[in-house]
Fold this sequence. Notes:
This protein has about 400 residues and is α/β, with parallel strands linked by helices. Helix content is about 40%, strand content about 15%. The protein is globular, with a radius of gyration of 33 Å. The relative contact order is 0.12. About 10% of the residues have low confidence.
Amino acid sequence: MTETADELSTPLGQQTERQKRRFRLPFTAIQALAVLFGLFLVAFLAIALFTDNPLGGEPVVRVALRKPAADEKQPAAASRHTEQAAKSASHTPTADNKTVTIIDGSSGKRQDVVIGGDVADKAGAEPAPAMTGIDPRLLEKSRYGMIPVVADGLKPFTVYAADADRTKAAKMPVVAIVVGGLGVGAAKTADAIMKLPPAVTLAFTPYGADPTKLAERARAQRHEILLQVPMEPFDYPDNDPGPQTLLTTLTPEQNIDRLYWHLSRFQGYAGIANFMGARFTATDTVMQPIIREAAKRGLGYLDDGSSPRSAALSLTAAQSMPFAKADFIIDAVPTSAEIDRTLVKLETLAKERGLAVGVASALPVSIERIAAWIKTLEARGIMLVPLTTAMLKSKSG
């Protein structure tokens, strides 16, 4: 009866059951996602701004090496395999022990670990083979391979300088041409070696697949060669010269260690040159140890002239180091007309000052125009000389 009365007394259109109340969050799903994204962004910025990483985020490999215990025995099968391998000379590793450097990615601390020669070979740590025509007295072993050194009063700068009539060069205007960027790209390197006369100096980067073979070929054609050392530009790392680049953020010891890696890539060069490096060459504190080390090893230094703020002139003078700075980048605009115009400027400067130095890349158009221009030099009373001859003339002048 009660239920019937309630139904009769309920106004029309209204339900007697009380609807359940739904729980609602004080914010929407979109608002929640926006908050989460904001927190992620703040965390990312905090890591980027306050995390100390002296290596600039460069890739780092950590290697775990376990030294077997003295009483640890090989399994019988492994022992038999070792004995069989020892009987075959073709399978017996004969390489010397190598050193692997483990770098702490956060602190930059380095730790050298000596491993067996066979393991190092598998890791690709085999140093470059010695080149023919290289004086072994002028080589010193580093953990990366052989690097130049002064010995018995001999310096790589003088021993590996190309032949030139320096008496004649002292009496007339001279021009030195350096073509760089070689070693990466066998075809363009071969063109520069074969199409340019021996008096043109060739500069090799350390990144070629087989720099020793190409540098050896250049020396066989009587070219003197330089090693280009990658250095930090102002827009690094957006513009990255390559692995083992010398950086302003590293310690002098770290940069010299990287220099050794470059120096070991091949032998027979009379000097080094910067590869990029506008920021690095303008920073005295990081540039000075590199110049001091190169001078100690009997090398000359070429500044490619790309940075007006380079400190190389004063630093090399303090070390009595052979030095030259490029007056013109011949193919800054790589067209035939612009290259020809720059070569005329180079010629004019040589007549006015008695000496001019130009640098170029191994572009086909550059090689073609430089080779054609060189053929006209003698008739114009200008002598083409290797870079080392220009350095010596500049120093004596």
